[in-house]
Structure formats: structure tokens, C-alpha cells
């Protein structure tokens, strides 16, 4: 008679909370502990992607990293109170990463500022991803978002949040765009930069050429009056695979990108303002495309 937990070779047997499942916290007494180097002086140094890591901050973001992201978490650092609240989740999702726990004042001293959320995680930065591979895998998914030279981390994070909410297949970014794995961009996106497939290209034209080659119609968002209203374009092109092109606030898309796009579209009608914040515009356009 086989044991009740008998399973096929190579298949993991899940452990239930309350049996022998556990996560062993490592309590930190010294802020100079060398194991915490990836968390040190986060405010001043995380923009450069030091030590090949990114920093995720906050309960929801760290949960998303551990449970949903393909990226590897290297370590977790929590205040004592947040560890108590998150322990059941960590039992299930943090078995591969050490979990460090420190008093709030030590946590703040390590990070270099007050971490009022009490939750940090360090993740390994992934290797660059091939755009063609992403577009092949996105064949049956939602729209693609392509960004040209967006340097504001808040806008990049907001666009990723919208992309995740409306089921975008990927976000493509030119090399001058802000780092989506910068701590603030991750936080604004509520962890979407850790889950939405992302590729970098040198120029917007490179992205547009690849998108056309994979059967996407590219829609350049612009506030100019002679652009087609996006809902009208969608109505006459139902069933099309769509990529939305967005440029930085102020300059917008380059002339080259506008010329190379399948169509120029606008959100409207609007009154009282000439244009929208780029993250807001992305959300409205994604909703219009996804609802079609």
C-alpha cells in the first residue's frame, strides 16, 4: 500500500501551513551586517542598479515580486511588525530567499531613510529580452505599448500599471526611457514593472518595424486636431492587433515615429485642456482598445 503522500518522481509535494512549512527569519542586530549590502543607502544609490539588483518597496509590491514575477528575489528585509503580518504569505512564497527582520530604527538606518511601509526586497535584474521573442509570445495577448524617450519615472510606472490592468501583452521602450526597475517606478506601478514583459530598443523606428513585421497596427497617440479619434479608428479596424505609441510629455513622439506609424490617433473630444498626462492618455487608449 503506497504512503498517502506518494507522488511521481520529480513532482513536489506541497506543504501545508501548520505542518512542517515555515520560514526562518534572520534577526538583524547590527546595521553593518554585510549580508544587507544590497539594501544599504537605497535612496542615494538604487538609480544605478547597483550590484545587479533592483529594490521593491511596500507590502503589495513585494508580494507581487514573490508570487507573480518571473524575476528572482535575492532577499527580503522587513520590520518586526511587518514580518508578523506577512509570515503566512512568506511561508508559501519566500522559501528561496533569506528573510531578514530588523527593528524599525535599524531598518531605516540601513536603507538611509524612513521605510514607513516596513517592507523591502532585493531582486536580480533580468538579462535583456529579445523584442521579437516577446512579440511572438504576445501573439494571442492584448495590445502592445511602445514608449519613446519617456524619462519620468512616475509616468513610466503609471503606464506599466495601466498596461497590467488592461492586459497589455508587453511594453517596449527606447533606450532613453526611464528605468522601469527604479524603485519609484516599481512602486508607482504597484509591481507591474516586475510582471509585464518588457523589451528595450535603440530607437522607436526599430520597435515600429518589428511590430509591423509581426502584424501589429501601430497607433501614434497625439493631440493634433487632424488625427483620427481613437474610437473611430477602432470601429473601422476591428480584429486588428494594435500597438500604442506614446512619446514624452511636451515633445511627444518624434517626427520619424509619427511618419512610420500606421495611423495617428487622438483621445477626444476634450475641452479646457490641450493634452493629457501621458500615463492618463495611455490608460484611456488601452481601455478603448481592450473594450473593442
Span between termini = 57 Å
How many H/I helical runs? Answer: 11
Overall 3D form: elongated
Compressed to H and E, one letter per element, the order equals EHEHEHEHEHEHEHEHEEHEHEH
Q: Which bin fits the share of residues in helices? A: 25-40%
Report mean pLDDT, rounded to a whole number: 88
Taking the sheet with the most strands, its summary is: 7 strands, parallel
List low-confidence stretches: 1-20
User: How many E-type strands?
Assistant: 12
Strand order, sheet with most strands: 8-7-6-11-9-12-10
Look at the helices and sheets and give the structural class: alpha/beta
β-sheet strand percentage? 15-25%
Rg, alpha carbons: 22 Å
Task: Describe, in plain words, how this protein is organized in 3D.
The chain is α/β, with parallel strands linked by helices and 292 residues long. The protein is built from 11 helices and 12 strands. It has helices at residues 42-45, 59-67, 80-93, 104-111, 131-137, 153-165, 183-188, 204-213, 230-236, 255-260, 278-291, and strands at 25-27, 53-57, 73-79, 99-102, 119-124, 144-148, 170-174, 198-201, 216-221, 228-229, 241-247, 263-266. The strands form 2 sheets. The protein has a 7-stranded parallel beta sheet, with helices on both faces. Strand 3 (73-79), helix 3 (80-93) and strand 4 form a beta-alpha-beta unit. The termini are far apart.
Concise overview:
By secondary structure, the protein is of the alpha/beta class. 34% of the residues lie in helices and 20% in strands.
